[in-house]
Each structure stands twice: as structure tokens, then as C-alpha cells.
Amino acid sequence: MLTSKSATNTHKLNRAHARRCVATAGASQKRTAKAHAVASAQAAAASVASTLAASLAVAGPALAADGDAGSAVGSVVGVLALAAGAGVFFSAADPEKRREEMTAAAGGDEMASVKTYFETEGASRWKKIYGDDEEEVNKVQLDIRMGHAQTVDKIVNWLDSDGLDGRTVADCGCGTGLLSIPLSLKGANVSASDISGPLVEEARSRASAAGAKSATFEVSDLESVDGKFNTVTCVDVMIHYPQNKVDAMIEHLASMSEEKLIVSFAPNTPYYSVLKRIGELAPGPSKATRAYLHKEEDVRAALKRAGFRVTRDEMTATNFYFSRLLEAERA
Ligand SMILES: C[S@@+](CC[C@H](N)C(=O)[O-])C[C@H]1O[C@@H](n2cnc3c(N)ncnc32)[C@H](O)[C@@H]1O
User: Fold this and answer.
1) Sorting pLDDT into bands at 50, 70 and 90, what band is 283?
2) Cα of 172 to ligand 1 centre, how many Å?
3) Which residues line ligand 1 at a C-beta cut-off of 6 Å?
4) Domains within the chain, CATH numbers bracketed
5) Distance, CA 31 to ligand 1 centroid (Å)?
6) Where is the composition biased (Polar residues) (predicted)?
7) Distances (CA, A) of 301 to 63, 110, 297, 308
8) Across the chain, what does the average pLDDT equal?
9) How many C-beta neighbours within 10 Å does residue 59 have?
10) Per-residue pLDDT tens for 191-212?
């Protein structure tokens, strides 16, 4: 039995112990909360950075629209600040080296490596980005979806204003058919093709659901497509290839076009080069290694060599999507 003195002492001791426990628990909770906050911030930064990298990789193309360039810078600065605050480690691997490694993994064949990506993880990623469910995509992907929709609208408006009824269009690298389908619905006869079997399947099923009866879809790399068409389109594909390959692609696409050739690419400007480099600094096997920016004068020169002159140009720049669009006509 405790005496009142010992009970008082015990009570004091218990109170002191309780205070220590509360203090310890508080400190521990604070440490846990801090660790949790750092871990969350790290995860968020890594996720944003890798999404940014992926989007820069494949989103592709354009000259920055004045206002939008500012917000893109803001986004990138935000990512860097978040990453720095969380102490995220960005591996600054040489993108050229990583590009070579990815190509080597596909037996040294760059096109095979692109095909592998778009038949596996790229297929599901781009089906979602090019879908219409807002819950399936994150904010960056939603931004890319909106930016890409602007590019498609611009092309459809150009061609529609010149008359689409009965015109033949080859949409090379058609993806899920986001351009082929509206062109078909407006009366064009569309021969669409893509290097990726799963994306061609998706395009077929979307075309059928939309009632786009005058569009056909086949699996083919664009340099193996043949035929003659009023218009040839190749949208957001060139970002996957270096300039010498793009030169060959433009030459082939031009040989199939009797009138118009429409291409888009990610412009190689100092601003976009920095943006892309930041994307490439994200940790992990970044998709950004597959992205090539192209100098507009190089693309224009390739069009000129192929006998085409640029008749319209546009650009689309959202926070994460950059696409320079050129329409050229046989000179
Ligand atoms: C970013 S997506 C753009 C899809 C479509 N042009 C659009 O704008 O909705 C790039 C597409 O290019 C395709 N692609 C990549 N390399 C290709 C090649 N050599 N020949 C044909 N398609 C290719 C990919 O499979 C993918 O569907």
C-alpha cells in the first residue's frame, strides 16, 4: 500500500513520466510527420518530374505561345523548387547515352525501340491521354490532352476550309485516330496507319463507335506506306526521331502527297531545349530520352528539298504540350 507521501511522489513521478511520454510521443509524432511530409514531397516531386519528363518526351511539338511559355516556366520552376526542398536526387545522366542504351536494348534499331514502346507501356499511356475520361489522367496528361486537341482542331479547320468531301488523306502515325476520325466524319477518305498494333486496334474501334466509315486503319511504319493522296498528315510523330531520320520521313511522305503535307514537331529553341533537359533529369528510366527537338529551318529545308513550300503555320503551347505545325503544298 502506498503512503500519502510516496503516493504523492509516485504521482509526481507519473506526471513527469507522462510529460516525458507526451514530449517523446510529440517529438516522435513530429519526426514521423516530418518524415512523412518529406517522403510525400519526394514522391510528389518524383512523380511530377517523371510525368513532366514523359510528357516532354512524347507530347511533342511547337513554338511557345507568349503567355503559355510563362506558365510553362512557372511549372518547371515549381517542380525544381519542390524537388530541391524534398532533397530529391536527380540523376544527371547524359541523355545521349541513355538514348543509345534504349536503342541498344532494341537491337540497335531506333524505330524498333519506338515500336516496342508504343506496343507496350506507351499504348496504355496514350490510350488514356488521348481518351475522354478525366479521372484516368493526371493534370499534366490532361494538359497534354487539351493541347493535342487544339492541334487537331487547327488541322481539321485548315482542311475543312479548303473542302474535305471526297478528298483522300493518309494519316501516318495515326495513334488512336484522333485526327483520322473527324476528317472521315467530314467526308474525307482516310487511309490511316501506325507502327503500333494496339493503337491501330484502338483507332479502329473508336472509328467504328463514331461512325467514321470512310477511314481505314493499318499497322505500318510510315516509310512503308505507299499510294498517292491529296493530303498526307504526320502529327506529333517526328519527336521520336533524329533529324536525319526526319529528313527521310519527310521525303517519303512528300512522295505520297499530290497536294498537301502537314507535319508537326517539337521545336528546337533554347527555351524548349532547357525544358526538355529538365525533363531528362528526372530519376528513373525517363521517356524523355526518346524525345528529339527539331530546328524549324531544318524541317522547312527538308520540305523544300521534297518540292514543297510552307503555306500555313501554327503553334500550340500549353503548360506541357508544345507542337509546331506546318502545312506545305507542292510548289
Ligand atoms: C504522340 S503519338 C501521335 C498520334 C497521332 N498522330 C495523333 O496526333 O493523335 C505518336 C504516334 O506515332 C506512332 N509512330 C512512331 N513511330 C512511327 C513510325 N515510324 N511509323 C508510323 N507510326 C509511328 C506511334 O505509334 C504513336 O501512335
Assistant:
1) low
2) 7
3) 58, 60, 111, 114, 118, 126, 130, 172-175, 178-179, 194-196, 199, 221-222, 235-237, 240
4) 95-330 (3.40.50.150)
5) 48
6) 1-11
7) 17, 23, 6, 9
8) 77
9) 27
10) 999 999 999 999 999 999 999 9
